[in-house]
Amino acid sequence: MIAALAAGVLLTLIWGYAWIISGRANHGRRAAKERWLAEPFLELLQRSGLLDRAQSITAGLHGKLLILNGETWTAGATHRFIAGAVGAGYAAMCAGAWLAVLSGEQTMLCIGLLLGLVIPAAKWKDTAGKVERRKQDILLLLPEVLNKLMLLLGAGETLQRALVRCAERKDGKGQEPLLLELRKVNESIRNGESFAAAMEKFNRRCGVQEVSVFTTTLLLNYRRGGDRLVLSLKELSYSLWEKRKAVARSRGEEASSKLVFPLVGIFFVLMILVASPAILMMRG
User: Fold this and answer.
1) Residue 8 confidence (pLDDT)
2) Could you tell me the domains of the chain?
3) What is the model's pLDDT at position 28?
4) pTM for the whole structure
């Protein structure tokens, strides 16, 4: 009880100190989550120098967030993301400490401390999972886009007009990352940017090796056009379809593994439902 009270008071005092030195108390227009969690701990992390010392670690996180949020994402935004994750974990620790004081259960303090470590790690892992999911979505759609591009080029369309039509989807699936990036390419070209520069930016935004090969193939052959470009794309499509099969297979295995835990839970519930009447009859 005394340990929980001391932990709660100490954690609250540290949070209050961080709130005061952040100087954000009067900025009521900021979002509540940023005002209460991100800003105070961002100030603490910056003053302690932890962000500078952990720069090699946070660089990987910044690269993932840059892929997810686009080129406008800055290093300061990554620092605020880290501060928000740390603040959420710290809030769980404070809540656990005070719940332990109110309930008299030291277990609540341990749970709060555990959540304080798990929540930032879970946010970090969730970012990596979103990047991997985005990569898989691009790999699943890229062979279809490539096939459509080859058909349009074979029908006499220019490469730029073919890319515009490839970015259009009328089946309700127009929000895939690859199609969104292709639309940005078309917008950049319409605004006067060169095709090569727009495709280079497209390659960086996607951050997928297969897209890099696709982009390189287009840039090497788009001036030639005609059968030479279609032939190069056809050779590339074989490997992309194999990659698509591998991604689909891995997603199927992932889905089947996720079903194991609910099935085990249902199995135990059924065992209890079947066995409990027999046990009650034996006792009776």
Assistant:
1) 55
2) 2-104 (no CATH), 136-251 (1.20.81)
3) 47
4) 0.76
Distance from C-alpha of 260 to C-alpha of 243, rounded to nearest angstrom: 26
Cα 23 from Cα 20, distance rounded (Å):
6
Q: How far apart are CA 208 and CA 92, in angstroms?
A: 36
pLDDT at 108: 77
Q: What is the mean pLDDT of the chain?
A: 78
Structure tokens at 148: 């459509």
Range scoring the smallest mean pLDDT among 35-39, 126-130, 145-149: 35-39
Single-letter code of the amino acid located at 45: L
Long-range contacts of 2-5 (CB under 8 A, 24+ apart): 3/106, 3/109, 4/97, 4/100, 4/101, 4/106, 4/108, 4/109, 5/97, 5/101
